[in-house]
Specification:
Distance between the termini: 10 Å
Order of helices and strands: HEHHEHH
Number of helices: 5
Oligomer: single chain
Radius of gyration: 14 Å
Number of strands: 2
Length: 125
């Protein structure tokens, strides 16, 4: 059953908030977006291939994004039917889920394992 983009965004947001908090930056940001390096993300931004609001923070190095916006962007990409966008966005959304699943063995301060959903469970095709 195909989920709505809003439902998918909510599930992704919950997973990302639990693992990273309300702000993504550095390696967490580029990995969740499906890039192998900060340089790859920087190049995509320069080429205007990322329609995600990235911003700088005074006295902090690098770019940042709100977890909410990242989750919405990933959900929109995952649900997209455009062939050029769907292939790249599917990899990004799947990469985000894999990044979250990688933390499955880590424990939170409460001592419980991180909640994990598979890409099919969150509605990625």
């Amino acid at each position: 059953m195909q989920q709505s983009t809003a439902d998918l965004a909510l599930k992704l947001e919950q997973q990302l908030l639990e693992k990273y908090g309300p702000l993504l930056g550095g390696p967490s940001l580029y990995r969740v977006l499906g890039f192998k390096s900060a340089a790859a993300l920087r190049q995509a931004v320069q080429r205007d291939q990322i329609r995600l609001q990235l911003f700088a923070i005074t006295n902090r190095r690098g770019k940042f994004a709100l977890t909410l916006h990242v989750a919405q962007w990933l959900a929109e990409c995952c649900q997209s039917d455009a062939p050029a966008v769907a292939d790249r966005s599917q990899r990004a959304a799947t990469s985000a889920v894999e990044t979250i699943e990688t933390s499955n063995t880590s424990r939170h301060s409460s001592g419980t394992p991180a909640g994990v959903v598979s890409s099919t469970a969150i509605g990625c095709r």
